[in-house]
Amino acid sequence: MPYKDKYILEQRRRQKEKMYQTLETGIYVDGKHIEFALVQLFNGIWDIMLPSDFIDMPRAVARIKYPSEQRPQIIKTSLSGRENFTFHLYDVQAENPQSIRDVCGQFQAVLKQVNQSIRIVETDETEKNNLFLMMFSYINWGIDTQIYNLVCMTSLRGKLLQETFCCIYDDAEKWKGMARQVFLSAREHFL
Q1: How far apart are CA 136 and CA 112, in angstroms?
Q2: pLDDT one-digit tens code per residue, 32-55
Q3: CA–CA separation, 50 and 34 (whole Å)
Q4: Other CB atoms within 10 A of residue 50 CB
Q5: Strand partners, 153
């Protein structure tokens, strides 16, 4: 009898999670319901749906986690610090899909050159909300564990915008579908 109760509870949990699979309804990740809110970045010209409990990473933590002076301009992090969304607007022309593809290919080549252990896992391109988005994922090593990175490159006012989601590799399957939905939610906001 206790096994039947466990089965019923598990089925109820799965049914509940199936009802929450979009940014609008919220998404279950690792048994936790995550809600999303529209956030405006870069002085209000970029709208994107982000987990509502993600915060700006404190500067002192950002200096440690992203030691390069070229760290992302905006870093949103979960309260545990294990998952991050980063945003960096480069002064590089990216006015059409081919220029974004070219820069993305160059970025991947530099990644592999700097760290030969990096593996590019998936690449994808799509159009959404009048934006061309080039995405790829790669795995690298952190201090003591592998890190999953989903990179999205697009154009914002003719400049290259790089958005990245990262988490511990062991958690990637739980988060990567949600991260992709976040990137697809982005819109250029015309003032």
Answers
A1: 13
A2: 889 999 999 999 999 999 999 999
A3: 10
A4: 17
A5: 134, 162
> Three-state SS across the chain?
CHHHHHHHHHHHHHHHHHCCEECCCEEEECCEEECEEEEEECCCCEEEEEECCCEECCHHHHHHHCCCCCCCCEEEECCCCCCEEEEEEEEEECCCHHHHHHHHHHHHHHHHHHCCCCEEEEEEEEEECCEEEEEEEEEEECCCCEEEEEEEEEEECCEEEEEEEEEEHHHHHHHHHHHHHHHHCCEECCC
Round the average pLDDT of the chain to a whole number and report it.
89
Nearest-angstrom CA–CA distance, 143 and 57: 19
| Calpha distance 64→118 (Å, rounded) | 21
pLDDT digit string (tens) for 44-84? 999 999 999 999 999 999 998 888 888 999 999 999 999 99
Q: What are phi and psi of 113, to 5 degrees?
A: -70, -40
- Residues present in the chain in total: 191
**66/102 Cα distance (integer angstroms):** 25
Distances (CA, A) of 173 to 78, 126, 137, 148: 17, 21, 12, 10
Token pair for residue 109?
């080549």
pLDDT for residue 161: 97
